[in-house]
Amino acid sequence: MKYQNIMKNNKVQCKICPRNCILANGQKGYCYVRENINNTITLTSYGYNTGLAVDPVEKKPLYHFYPGTAVLSFGTLGCNMGCKFCQNWHITKVKTDIHSLNKTSPEELVKIAKHYDCKSIAFTYNDPVIFFEYAIDTAKLCQANGIKTIAVTSGYINPEPAAEFFKYMDAANIDLKSFSEKFYKKNCSAHIQPVLDTIKYVKKETKCWLELTTLLIPDENDSNEEIKSACEWILNNLGEDTPLHFSAFFPKYKFSGRKHTDFSVLLKAYETASNNGLKYVYTGNLTTKETSSTYCKNCGATLISRNGYKISEYNIKEGKCIFCGCQCDGKFE
Predict the structure, then answer these.
(1) Which member of 58, 246, 274, 331 has the greatest number of CB atoms within 10 A?
(2) What is the pLDDT of residues 219-275, one digit of tens each?
(3) For 62-96, how does the pLDDT look when each residue is reduced to its tens digit (9 = 90+)?
(4) Burial degree of 296 (CB within 10 A; 0-12, 13-18, 19+)
């Protein structure tokens, strides 16, 4: 395993993510699936998954990456984030016996994707950063077979493995969970700067198409000031063409007693982001036709009208607005 340091006393440091866990022989990292086995960091969940599903790509969410196409989604167990509000806590936090899961090789995943006419395979449900080797081996086979790859991730990864990981990804949706270090420390047991560094790297240094998602939690990260600060950072570091999705929080895990996010909160964030210069802003799991549609950044015409995850109107030809000819940012058929 490349991303490790051999320490004294038979300990090994995992260098995949900023936690940099130092593990004795037989000890598992924070993520639960990376373990020191005979002085080598080993991915114990390799080849195991918590289920396969064929989804619309819009569900990832990706609205500017081959809209309307199908994607084969899968994930494994564990996570390197400590989010108290995790919406998939039953697979990221529960210490399930890995050997009780389905086993699907990279070759089988590609075969299944072809069978169901999937344009892409998405590494999702839990963070693919921690099943690094499984994701990359699958992605390499995807490239060889004309299948696109998608990473749905929190972006909590060290720079060197990030360079290898995103080299094999065609698109990524990265969670910008908040624009506050206090939030990351308190609610995720993590730090914001590595996430911002990953986001900038993907946007500026790779060919991977990037979209961002923020799960809005009442009284935690939904203030107008914080959203404006995040939008300013996006404009200055990524550009106005970076899609931003706002999703509603539903009470889960350690936040099970909290209030769910009203649509009015998403709408306010949508308006703030749009008014502060971002060209592609969306609301996610609570939405309207207006807040899920894509508009031309030049003439304002509706390019893609969506009803939930389904496309009801499509006004893009060869990646351009059919009304004014302006290029729409993204990847299109």
Answers:
(1) 246
(2) 999 999 999 999 999 999 999 999 999 999 999 999 999 999 999 999 999 999 999
(3) 999 999 999 999 999 999 999 999 999 999 998 88
(4) buried
Cβ(280)–Cβ(294) below 8 Å: yes
Q: Which fold has domain 45-293?
A: TIM Barrel (3.20.20)
What would the pLDDT profile of 146-187 be if each residue is shown by its tens digit?
999 999 999 999 999 999 999 999 999 999 999 999 999 999
pTM above 0.90, yes or no: yes
Distances in whole angstroms, Cα of residue 163 to Cα of each of 154, 169, 202, 208, 229 = 15, 10, 9, 11, 27
Label residue 200 exposed, middle or buried (CB < 10 Å: 0-12, 13-18, 19+).
Answer: middle
Residue 244's SS3 state is strand
Peptide bond into 61 cis (omega under 30): yes
**Sequence letter at residue 210:** L
Which pLDDT score, from 0 to 100, does residue 303 have? 98
Tell me how far apart the alpha carbons of residues 153 and 128 are, in angstroms, rounded to a whole number: 7
3-state helix, strand, coil in the chain (%, to 5): 30, 25, 45
Q: Which of 195, 210, 133, 187 is nearest to 164 (CA)?
A: 133
Model pLDDT, residue 98:
86
94-116 b/e with 16+ CB inside 10 Å = b? eebebeebeebebeebbebbeee
Structural domain boundaries in the chain? 1-44, 45-293
Alpha carbons 12 and 27: distance in angstroms, whole number: 10
Alpha helices for the chain (secondary structure H)? 89-92, 106-115, 132-144, 159-167, 181-188, 193-205, 224-237, 263-275, 289-292
Phi, psi of 147 (to 5 degrees): -105, 135
User: Is 97 a residue whose pLDDT tops 90?
Assistant: no
3-state secondary structure of 286: coil
Instruction: Characterize the bridge pairing of strands 209-216 and 244-248.
Output: parallel
Point out which residues pair with 174 in neighbouring strands: 153, 212
Q: What is the rounded CA–CA span in Å between residue 86 and residue 319?
A: 36
